[in-house]
# Entry
Amino acid sequence: MQAAALPQLREELAVHVGPTGADGAPTWTLHDPLRNQFFRLTWAAFEVLSRWHLGDAAAVARAVEAETTLRLDEEDVDGVVEFLAQSQLLKPDGPRDVARLLAIHDSQKTAWYTWILHHYLFFRVPLVRPNRMLDAVLPHLAWLGSRAFRLATLAALVAGLFLVGRQWSAFAATLVDHFSMEGLAAFGVALGLAKIVHELGHAFTAKAFGVRVPTMGVAFLVLMPVLYTDVNEAWKLPSRRKRLLIGAAGILAELTLAAWATLAWGLLPDGMARSMAFTLAATTWISSLAINLSPFMRFDGYFLAMDALDQPNLHPRSFALARWHLREVLFKLGEPVPEHLPAATRSGMIVFAWAVWVYRLVLFLGIAVLVYHFFIKALGILLFAVEMGWFVARPFLQEFAQWKKRAAAIRASRRSRLSLGLALGFVLLAVVPWSGRVSAPALLKAAEHVSLYAPAAAVLGTVEVAAGAQVAAGAVLARLDNPDLLHRLDQVERRIAVLRYELASVAFEESFRGRSRAIASEMEATLAERAALLRDQERLVLAAPIAGTVTDLSPLVQPGQWISPREPILALRAGAVIEAYVAEDDLSRIQVGGRGRFIPEGSGEARAATIAAIDHSAVKALSDPELAVPFGGAIPARFDAKSLVPDTAVYRVRLDLDGTIAQPIRGTVHLEGERQSWLGRVFKAAAAVVVREWGM
# Structure
């Protein structure tokens, strides 16, 4: 029986020598110039293509076995034919090939809404064809790639970091000062400049290695403009090192800019130039290290990782392995592994796939929230739904569809029963209201707190109590002296004595008789002055206004010292109370009379308490700064007009308990509340957002 003839290859295809594989085997790169796509060829595939002219699969397989150390059969050659057909690299010959191409074309057709969705998420706008310009400019910029410039940049980096380290407080203060509309605008301009330098780094490095750069332009990722440079032809290079340098050129260009800008900030005096250098340095450092080096998105870091690890198509291959591994863990279907790799490599790719999924889930949730808030309400809701549906829900639905196709095998697997049981357990944990406990940051402090001050500048005479002593209301706590007050009182007493003598002499002394009324009036004023001075003297004896415990008695305050009226001498605390701050979502679950338990921070004995009062309006400013995040607490808050304003809505709850407390203690209070499931809380929060945003 005569073997079927091999189909014809497209004439414009080109094959280039590729890098050596990780296993030491040679590779080749097949270029489709019409679509500007590249395909990695293994040694076996290259040998098959080299003998394609033999005409049939059997002849090709025999020739490969005879002329190389490879062992192939007709099925291996048919596999190459299938790869070429699926990649549209064969010349159509006859109705069957035309039907195959039409089927591929039809499978790629999408509805108009799908087309809009794809192009809203990502599309490119080519702006320039820079190939000739790069050829003309490259000789003038060749010095940027010289060894001398690289060493100079390294020296600038070391010097810049040294200067920043010496002036770190000024650098950090400048960073904080840039969080304004003007600072954000400057960051935007600097980011644009850095990205232009980034793309030119790719382009000039590619030209230096003889690679054509057909286009440069702007790509829109979720309507966010991002510059791009087409350096796909770098795949023609057989040297992996050169491809790595082209892929890393953008990051290296930005880091070079950051190094020199950092040095400029350290050397320049304060002014506009130094501010511009700081903005450029901070922007390029953040852009290069936090964004471009990430392998989780298809940025430079991803392509560098592929070249460095020699793992083409890293994302789709790792995703396929992770999905296969997930199904094996959950159902143990015994399906063949998508590709055979060393155990360590396969495990690493699976872990990498999960890391990408988690990263993208967080990123896309953030993008969904941003598009919701930055667009008008109706469009924002639509875009939010698109982001959540396409990026978050769609991958789950696609995997569930694969499970549906394998429903029979899944039902027959014993492992699936265990997985189903665990899934039901998680559902029960989410649906059943297991716990009614409401936790909130709290402060245990005295119910009454009084600080005692000197009524005026005075000398501390004696302190009648010790720290921690229990005193009754009205008990003497300290005695003060005021020499000036005593001197004035002595003068007043002498004046009163003189005035009494003059009044007593009115009957027999004519000079006193004429001014008797004046003497009587002066006597009245002097007696009033003495009464005031005596009251001031009585105030120098500090008595307890309430019954309580003596606290805050400073050991530095000693008898004989002058005391300022603004300096507290001691304090009295009586009783104990807990002030907790409950989140808005939990407020409806608690009520007055409910029980609670205070757990002190660190170590200490838990104390039982009862809810005495619940505020009906959110706290505008925290009266207890110890509970705010800036002071080590748990409530996110910011300073606004010298007040600590909570970032989220919290409500103050007062709890009574027995005993007294000498010093405030920070901790957490657990309150008994209405039982509510985790899923119920999620639905309640979502409903609250819908009601708030739609104005219901």
Observations:
- The chain has five domains: 14-107, 114-310, 328-431, 439-443+575-694, 449-570.
- The chain is about 50% helix and 20% strand.
- The first strand starts at residue 14 and ends at 17.
